[in-house]
Amino acid sequence: MCDSYKPGLTLAYLYLIYFENDTRPEAEKGAKPRAPRAAKFDNIKEEYSFRLKEYTIKQASWSTQSSRYQNIWDWVYRTVEPAILAPYLELLVSQERLSLQNVIRALRDKFQPSENNTREQVREDYKRILHYGKIGSINPKVWINDWYQVLARAQTYRVPEVEGFLAIKDFLQAVSSKFLPTWRVQQLTLVVEANALGEPVHILEQYRKIFEALIQETVRTRNVIFATLGGYSSSPSGHYCPCKETRTERHSWAPSDCSILELAVKGKTTKTPDPLPTDKELKAIHERLTSKQYEKVRGILEKKG
User: Fold this and answer.
1) Between helices 164-176 and 140-156, what is the axis angle to 10°?
2) Structural domain containing residue 11
3) Which of 14, 113, 167, 284 has its CA 20 to 30 A from that of 86?
4) In a domain? residue 77
């Protein structure tokens, strides 16, 4: 060992001393080791920039997740009575298991209805929407969309009312109460024949598409089969409308579906009438609408927006 050794010196320093005291030729003992240069900011700037960007992305992601998490907590506090929530929070704290997920699970296990109860509720919902189709005062487009949503849920829970021949019959009866009765008779005849011969029949989703197509065709041609499922008029003389100059004139569609009246009230319409009324005629229509005899029509238009 070198005579200049002192306790506490690093191995690298000892090696350097040894190299300095080594009298062998440099070619034999090898190149002299060099100490690393002191690091500068420029040497690590690129690495720092990369890590800063990575931090920014992770921070944004964390903030988003944290915000969503807090929103759910806020929803729990808003919708659950404190007297109901408190015991579960205390229990989870005592078990050192307090988390949003465990709170939701505890509430679900306690209050979630059984599958049988849910199925029965869905069944009642489906029967109710069919009933609305028969007597409810609802636009057919709105009704068919609501019906389809309830149908999808009923199919998920395998409700008997949405399966087989009876399901098709119930649907046709619902839509034909304010629709053309002959359409129901025609479709039922086809279903019965196909069923008897073992041939495939339309499923409910296909009848929905047919029904929607008929609605669109009705609106387009203005040869109205019905105006609303609850607002259908069986009167052969039609409806009074401010678009007509006298009370002796009527048209077969409801005033709420009259494009001329809509143009007079809003200044625009989705169905451009032909021929287009003049400004003078539109003004006269608007004035007739304000009369007492059309008070009910005004109420319908206000609700329709």
Assistant:
1) 160
2) 1-30
3) 113
4) yes
